[in-house]
Amino acid sequence: MRNLLLLSTSTVHGSSFLEYCLSEVEKHFSGLSEILFIPYARPGGISHSDYTEIVEKALARINIEVVGIHELDDIRKEIGEFKGIYIGGGNTFLLIQSLYSNGLIPIIRDMVVNKGVRYMGSSAGTNVACSTINNTNDMPIVHPPSFDALKLIPFNINPHYLDPVVGSKHMGETRETRIKEFHFQSAIPVLGLREGSWLKIEGEKIALGGGLPARLFERNKDAREILDSDELNYLLKARQN
Amino acid sequence: MRNLLLLSTSTVHGSSFLEYCLSEVEKHFSGLSEILFIPYARPGGISHSDYTEIVEKALARINIEVVGIHELDDIRKEIGEFKGIYIGGGNTFLLIQSLYSNGLIPIIRDMVVNKGVRYMGSSAGTNVACSTINNTNDMPIVHPPSFDALKLIPFNINPHYLDPVVGSKHMGETRETRIKEFHFQSAIPVLGLREGSWLKIEGEKIALGGGLPARLFERNKDAREILDSDELNYLLKARQN
Description:
Largest interface: A-B, 44 and 44 residues
Distance between the termini of chain A: 22 Å
Largest sheet of chain A: 7 strands, mixed
CATH class of chain A: Alpha Beta
CATH superfamily of chain A: Class I glutamine amidotransferase (GATase) domain
Strand content of chain A: 15-25%
Strand order of the largest sheet of chain A: 3-2-4-5-1-8-9
Number of domains of chain A: 1
Shape of chain A: globular
Oligomer: homodimer
């Protein structure tokens, strides 16, 4: 049974890395003393080891040890030993390219979908858990071979979802406009997840956490605010692509 | 001799399409009674013909007729008859994918670089004039075969350049952070062009227009504000890729 914790962001303003959701992370990984961290998204260009150190410090507070995937000698062989995986945020294009170049897409998908390995993602790590990375906010700094992602869920999440700024004079597209442009190209539903929000997905049930509404975009429908998690369960039955 | 007008945006707040820069557009296309418009970027999902109509209305004020590329029977044959091309804004990924699928990348490049055809781009149309589309702000709603662009200039432009918002509590990356992440992957210089700004490029000379400074990002250097256009000419000698 799949068991996912998908965070819009790792950090909310004014608190430390994962601090705002640490009790939720603790519940998610309960019983595990060690998880695998995948630092490929490299926020701000940080090195794999420096990024892993930040996560180590954060999870030490709930007595979870962290192994960076770059520390493994034979990634595709050793990854199977872990019962929990966390993919951190940064640049989604760099992240998905690295997952492809290391041959990890089918392996991680199999671990999470068929073997009950617990998955956590934040920001870009949430994008890659979805059907495709078409709804990332990141800059396309590298060209990955495909935008198809891990497909742990059959819809997309737009993390760091932002409402249009009232009175803004900036002419760049709003987030809502961008997602609507996507729906001229695709029928994949997109859930806008505001900072401080997360989805907890167990089997066929979705719970929206963090106390904020999410915004759901579906092709040929008006966008709507979601407060009641139960309204989301049907998304798990959406067609992939 | 190449002759380009690259606009950060087609429209500034509170004025109509191309209104703010219409005298510059008039100079750029002076002597031409007709130009070709490429509406492939489809802002907000607008149709090719509706988008072309907006441009027709705007350029009628300076007595220039507009032909939409979708109106041509044999695009690759008939495009060679035009002496001016305007590629409009919208979604950069959709635009470059459409340029590739119609086989237009080498044709337009040849027209502008070798045959003196005058080029104008706004927003996404400015992104595709550059070396690559790696520095677009758009959402990757489709997966183009490559991020290589028309390479009419050997550097990249980030249109709608935005300064970090002082006091913002949003944790998404700033524009500057995103461009710095790019420079961990590439040595292509990136010029942040604020809304209301443009570059006019004639041969080996760049003029920055609109009265605002631009922000230049180069690998392994501090970002800096550019006020004097002459400082930019050396960018035309940058290595492609």
